[in-house]
Structure formats: C-alpha cells, structure tokens
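Practice problem: predict the structure.
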Amino acid sequence: MSLSEEINRSWEQNAAAWTRAVREGLIPSRRIATDQAIVEAVLARQPRRVLDAGCGEGWLLRRLHEAGVPGLVGFDASAALIQSVPASLRAKLHVARYDEVARGAVSFGECFDVIICNFAILEEHIGPYLRSLANLLRPDGTLLIQTLADSPIAAGGEWRTETFQTMDGTWEPMPYFFRTAEGWRRVFQDNGLRVVSLLEPADRESGRKLSMLFAVQNERAEV
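Answer:
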C-alpha cells in the first residue's frame, strides 16, 4: 500500500472519530486559535466564491455559510466525511483525491476568489496539485494554506506519523509529510506561486506558535 493510500485509508477509518472531535471542540489548538485564524483570513478577503480543498466534515463551510459567503464548494478524499457535511449549507460537494484534482478530472465550475487548504495537504510531491488549485483562482484570487507550526529540522521536510495518542477513542495512525517554512516557500516558488503573507497563530497564554497560515497568489496576479 502506498503512502497516499495509507492516508486515504486513515481518513476513512477515522471519519466518525474526527467528526466528533471537531464538532465537540476536542482539539485544543483549533479551539484556541487556528480555527478562528482561517475563518478571519477568508472573510478578510470578502469572497463571493470559495473552495474548501479538503473540507472534511464541513465545519469551515458552515462558518462561512453563517457569515454570508454565497458560493461555497468543497471536496475531500473521504466519502464518509463528505457525507457528514450538512445539506443545509447548500454547498456543492465532491469526493476527490489529490491526483484527481491535479489532473483536472473534477470540474468545479467558475473560478474562485479564495481556495482554502486547512491542514489538508499531507503528501510530499504536491507540485501538480498546487498548480491545479492555482489555476482555479481568479486573477487576483488567493490560496490560503494553514499547516503545522514551523520546526527546526535540517531538511525542508520529512515523513512523520500521527498516532492520535492524545485523542479519546480508537484511531488509525496516519502518515503525513511535514514541511518547514523554508520547505513551503521552496515548493511555492517552484510552482509559480508567491507568498503574500505568513501568519503564525499562537496560544496567547504561553506564546507557543500553533500553526503557519500562508496566503499565496499566482506570480502573474496583480499586486
């Protein structure tokens, strides 16, 4: 089984437990800062049309719907998670893997003002995927990527395994590729994207950084 298949299998196995953890606020970093950070980053751009790439059970689509964003589209590789997205959101939903999106096998309709990848890029070789997402943006559109906080490792990235040991219940371990800030900047540059901003949401009490939130645009986009 390839690492990509292991990642997809993990999400299918963990769908119910993940849905409960997100909806009950059981993940401290999300509750403290990272959820609100991505919501504010999206709404600050006053988008009319948004794609949540790796939307999971739909919590972010729900928040954007409540904020009045009219055009909501989402996709996820896990059919079980997509089935958990409330129908009341009236979002257009797709079950799709990285490779299917990368080769243009899924039609999302008109281009987007904002595309979101919120802790949803887990593989190593993501160039074709990033380029395909960038091609779905309007000329001045923004790709928002929130990912794990930076870590001082020698290489630009490395494979790790999430075991969910701090979470209640039974979980399937999940491999994922961790990138440093330098590693992310390198992959953006290699794929025709420029970093517009980088935020690092933190725990206000301890000051510990909880994530990196990149806003990137196509190199051809107007400044």
